[in-house]
Design goal:
By secondary structure, this protein is mainly α. The protein has a single domain, classed as Up-down Bundle (Amino acid/polyamine transporter I), CATH 1.20.1740. Helices cover about 80% and strands about 0% of the residues. The chain contains 18 helices and no strands. Helix 5 packs across helix 18 and helix 7 runs antiparallel to helix 17. The chain is globular, with a radius of gyration of 22 Å.
């Protein structure tokens, strides 16, 4: 196996030209990463981030790129440190042993799968509301609507990972255009909004407290860890010894696109709405699009908002499906059973369809709590596990001593403690 891996590395090492030119596949992955990260959470980010006031929002904006880029680069490097073709569950077992591998695989699955359930519910609610209020037609029974929507997305999934990534990258274009349209549309309506709090410089203790609780919002709004494992495996397959360099280039461009687009949208929203209006939107449990549609009573926004939400949720569903299915397959493998790959794919798809359909039909109110409970696990996997591996795993020793490692560890601890604190009554 080692000889085979070495021969692969040597083969790629002799073709450095593959790294000098940016390929269409690199662009597809860049947009796929963007598509997984920028989803329904983005539509709540202006409310959650803007409520803290101007100065905390400005600091979060400056921290957004390093927080997200260094963390996801660390997780990518972790997956790349394993054997050829190993996904994140295999790499954990390779570095930390069978028991640790089984535990991390279990946590990885239960961190991502609840988010998939949340997207199933949100997708059903969005389409049902759109049919009723914008198209003025009676939506079919919830069970039928949920089944058709989830089955449609799983039909894309059945076409394979590359088709999923391509579909997500295609869906990114209208989403970027829509975000830009809304952000630019709001410019004439800027009233200063959050700037009214700029003259009120908070006390250091209050500022730190606000940042402490707001950092998880920013971290999880840009999170695309569910697709990182598949991304790293594909990079190693394509670029071999150069995979770290090329994947870092793709990640940096993807995160730059994320930060610029989303922060422009966030600042346009918070310059339009006052802090009191942001608080009202939070109290009503509305996304920023729904609140703006009601605020302006604009038919264009009222019609476009659910369509944008549908695209955002659908592409995030596809990205999270990759991670959830990978975790489920890893759990099956840890039981010692080795079904044929096609059989395992069908079993995974059937399980996802049934559970997502049941939850979307029942529309339970506890999904927000499930997502919050999954937050610390995602932070552990995304921030802390790769940094621990850098300290302990020989294959990652070359990354030791970098200042970014300390930064990522600190942000991970802040995110975990803040999420846990927010769950305490």
């Amino acid at each position: 196996m080692n000889d085979q891996a070495n021969s692969v590395d040597e083969r790629y090492a002799t073709t450095p030209a593959t790294l000098t030119s940016w390929s269409r596949q690199d662009t597809t992955w860049m947009l796929g990463l963007f598509g997984t990260a920028i989803g329904a959470g983005t539509l709540f980010l202006p409310i959650n981030a803007g409520l803290g006031g101007f100065w905390p929002l400005l600091i979060l904006a400056l921290l957004a790129f390093p927080m997200t880029f260094f963390a996801h680069r660390g997780l990518t490097r972790f997956v790349l440190s394993g054997r050829e073709g190993s996904d994140i569950t295999d790499v954990v077992e390779e570095h930390f042993g069978i028991k640790a591998g089984a535990l991390i695989t279990l946590l990885y699955f239960f961190a991502i799968f609840p988010i998939l359930l949340i997207y199933s519910v949100a997708l059903t609610n969005t389409v049902s509301s759109f049919m009723e209020h914008q198209l003025h037609i009676m939506p079919p029974p919830r069970a039928i609507l949920a089944f058709v929507l989830i089955l449609g997305l799983l039909a894309v999934v059945r076409c394979g990972e590359q088709v999923i990534v391509k579909a997500m990258s295609l869906m990114v274009y209208p989403f970027i255009v829509a975000l830009l349209f809304l952000a630019v549309y709001l410019i004439p309506h800027w009233t200063g909004g959050i700037l009214s709090t700029a003259s009120e410089v908070p006390a250091p203790s209050a500022l730190l407290s606000t940042l402490w609780l707001a950092i998880p919002v920013m971290v999880f709004s840009f999170n695309h860890s569910p697709i990182i494992s598949a991304f790293a495996v594909d990079q190693k397959r394509q670029y071999g010894a150069h995979a770290d360099e090329r994947s870092s280039q793709i990640l940096s461009r993807a995160h730059l696109l994320m930060v610029v687009m989303v922060l422009f949208f966030v600042f346009s929203c918070v310059l339009t709405l006052s802090p009191a209006q942001l608080a009202e939107a939070k109290a009503q449990n509305l996304s920023i699009l729904s609140y703006l549609a009601n605020h302006f009573d604009n038919p264009t926004i009222a019609f476009a908002a659910p369509l944008i939400a549908f695209v955002a949720i659908a592409k995030s569903f596809l990205g999270h499906y990759i991670g959830a299915s990978e975790g489920l397959k890893g759990l099956v493998a840890k039981t010692g059973r080795r079904p044929a790959p096609k059989t395992l794919d069908r079993m995974t798809a059937a399980f996802m369809l049934v559970v997502c359909w049941i939850v979307a039909t029942l529309n339970p109110s506890i999904l927000g709590m499930i997502e919050a409970l999954g937050g610390p696990v995602i932070a552990c996997i995304l921030f802390l596990m790769p940094m621990y591996a850098i300290r302990k795993v020989p294959a990652m020793a070359k990354y030791r001593g970098q200042a970014s490692n300390v930064f990522v560890t600190a942000v991970g601890l802040v995110a975990i403690t803040a999420v846990v604190y927010s769950l305490i009554p």
